[in-house]
Amino acid sequence: xxxxxxxxxxxxxxxxxxxxxxxxxxxxxxxxxxxxxxxxxxxxxxxxxxxxxxxxxxxxxxxxxxxxxxxxxxxxxxxxxxxxxxxxxxxxxxxxxxxxxxxxxxxxxxxxxxxxxxxxxxxxxxxxxxxxxxxxxxxxxxxxxxxxxxxxxxxxxxxxxxxxxxxxxxxxxxxxxxxxxxxxxxxxxxxxxxxxxxxxxxxxxxxxxxxxxxxxxxxxxxxxxxxxxxxxxxxxxxxxxxxxxxxxxxxxxxxxxxxxxxxxxxxxxxxxxxxxxxxxxxxxxxxxxxxxxxxxxxxxxxxxxxxxxxxxxxxxxxxxxxxxxxxxxxxxxxxxxxxxxxxxxxxxxxxxxxxxxxxxxxxxxxxxxxxxxxxxxxxxxxxxxxxxxxxxxxxxxxxxxxxxxxxxxxxxxxxxxxxxxxxxxxxxxxxxxxxxxxxxxxxxxxxxxxxxxxxxxxxxxxxxxxxxxxxxxxxxxxxxxxxxxxxxxxxxxxxxxxxxxxxxxxxxxxxxxxxxxxxxxxxxxx
Amino acid sequence: xxxxxxxxxxxxxxxxxxxxxxxxxxxxxxxxxxxxxxxxxxxxxxxxxxxxxxxxxxxxxxxxxxxxxxxxxxxxxxxxxxxxxxxxxxxxxxxxxxxxxxxxxxxxxxxxxxxxxxxxx
Lengths: 526, 121
Description:
The structure holds two protein chains of two kinds.
Chain A: H1 2-14, H2 22-36, E1 41-46, E2 54-57, H3 59-65, H4 69-72, H5 89-99, E3 103-110, E4 116-127, E5 133-142, H6 144-184, E6 188-192, E7 198-201, H7 203-208, H8 224-227, H9 232-241, E8 248-257, E9 261-271, E10 282-288, H10 290-326, H11 334-364, E11 373-375, H12 377-390, E12 396-401, E13 407-409, H13 411-427, E14 434-442, E15 445-452, H14 459-462, H15 475-478, H16 485-495, E16 499-505, E17 509-517, H17 520-524
Parallel strand pairs in A: 12-14
Antiparallel strand pairs in A: 1-2, 1-5, 3-4, 4-5, 6-7, 6-10, 8-9, 9-10, 11-13, 14-15, 15-17, 16-17
Helix pairs in contact in A: 10-11, 11-16, 12-13, 13-16
Chain B: E1 5-9, H1 13-26, E2 29-33, H2 39-46, E3 50-54, H3 62-71, E4 80-84, H4 89-96, E5 100-103, H5 108-120
Parallel strand pairs in B: 1-2, 1-3, 3-4, 4-5
InterPro entries (chain B): Bact_response_regulator, CheY-like_superfamily, Sig_transdc_resp-reg_receiver
GO molecular function, one term (chain B): kinase activity
Protein name (chain B): Histidine kinase
C-alpha cells in the first residue's frame, strides 16, 4: 500500500503538483470529482509541448463534444472545428495563446458525430513564477440553444424589417392608389385643415373652378380666387352646421363666381372624428348640379307647356262632344248615342294621361308639393271606393276593417293612389268579380291593402312594375295605358314617409299594400 | 229682351268658337276676343256683365289683364272667371283677383252653372 501510494505521488509530481501527505491526495481526488461534476467542459493544455496539446479533460467535455477521453488527450483543441476552419474567432485564440492572455470566444464546434454546437470558450493562461505561460485552462459551455435563440431573434428582426419595408411600400402603393382614385372622380374634392386652410384638392376641382394647384393649396378657403369662395352659405356650413352635425350631406350652395358664373353646388362635408393625425380635417365633396338643375327646369317647363298645349284643343273637343250630346235629336239611333258616349270616355282618358304625364315629371324632379291637411282617412277611402264602384259593374269592391279617422297628409294624392290601385285591381282581373280593400292600423302606421284575384305578377316583374313606363310584356297589348300609374303611386307614398309594395303569385292574384306613418313628426322626416 | 253679355278672351280659336256656341245657346250675348291686347277696348265699348279669361296668352297674359281690371274703378266690379289648363291656374287666378276658376278641360254643365251663378249675383 505504502509503495503504491508513493508511486502514485511520484507520477503526479511529474505534473508539478506536489503532495506532501494523504490529505492532499484526498483533496485532489475531491477536486477531480468536482471537476467531473461540472456542467462546463474543462480542459488543460500544455503550452510547453509542441502544438499545445490537451492534457486533461473532464467528463462534461466528453459529454459536450461526444468524444471519449482517449480521443481527446494529446490533440490540439482545434480538432473540434473539423473542416470549419475559417472562423474569425481563431485569430483571437491564436493571439491570446501568443500573448499569454485570457480570452472568451464563441465558436462553431462539431461533435464527433458531426453535430454542430456553439462553444463558448473561456481560455486563461497559467504562468510560472517567471511569467512563462506553461498551461492554458479552457472552460467551455455548449451555448447552442442560446445562440440559436439569438440567431432566431436576429432572424426575427430581419423578417420584421422586411415586413416593415414591405408594408411601407404597400402603404405607399395604397396611398398612390387612393390618390389616383381621388384624382379620377368626376366630383370636386377639397381637404381642409381645422382652420379651413386648403390641404389638397383634386383635378376635378381645379378644372371646374378654373384654378391652379399652387394658388389653392395652403390658402384659406375663403381667400381662394380673391375671396370668391367667401360664400355665406359655405361659412354657415363649415362654422355652424358641421361642428354639431357631422357629416352633412347634400347641402345646397348657390354662388355667382366672378369668372365662371352662377354655380349650383351640392356639398357633402365630413369632419374626421377618428383620433390621430387626421382628426378634425374636413373633407368636402362638391357636385356641380348647375346644368342638371337647368335641364330639369327646362324639362319641367317643356312638360308644363306641352300639357297646356295638349289640353287646349282637348277642351274644345270635350266641349263639342258635350254640346253634341245636348243637341241630340230625340229620334237618333242608340248606336250613335253609344258612339258619342264612348268619344266622351276616350277624351276623358286622354285628359287623365296628360295629367299623369305632368304628375310624373313633377314627382320625378321632386317638385311635387304636398298640401298636408288632417282628414278622415277611412271616410276618404270609402268615398273613393264608392266613386269607383259607381262606375264599375263588373266587380264588387269590399272594404274591411278600419285605419284612422284622422290622418295628416295630402288627401288628393292619397285618393289618387287608392284610385290607381283599385283601377289596376279591376283592370287586371277580368275573370274575377271581386276586389277587397283592407284597412288596418299596425303599430304607429296605418295600412291599406288592395287585393285582387286576377292574373298576378311574375316574381321577376314585381320590382319593375314600379318603374316609369314599365308594362308587363303581353299586358301592354291587352291593357293600354302609359305605365306610370304605379310609379306615381310609389312616389306619393314615399313622399308621405310610407312604403308601397306588392305581394303576388302569377295566376293567383295580387295584393298591393301601403303603409303611412301616423306619427306626424316621423312622417315629416322622410 | 235684354241678353246679358259675356266677354270671352282666349287666344285659342277652337275654345272661343265652342264657348260662343254653348253660351249663345244658353241665352247670352257673346263678345269673343282672341287678342288680349284688344280686351280693354271691347270692355269699354260693350261693358260686359261677365268675363271668361284665359291665362296663358301671347303678349298680354290673363293675370296681367285681370290685375289691370281690378285696379280700375270702372272695371273693378266686373265678375271674372279664369279658365286655364295651367297647373298653377287656381293660385294665379286667386292672386290676381278672379271671382272663380275653372280648369281646362271643363265640364260644360259645370261651366254654365258657374256663369249663371255669377251673373245672377
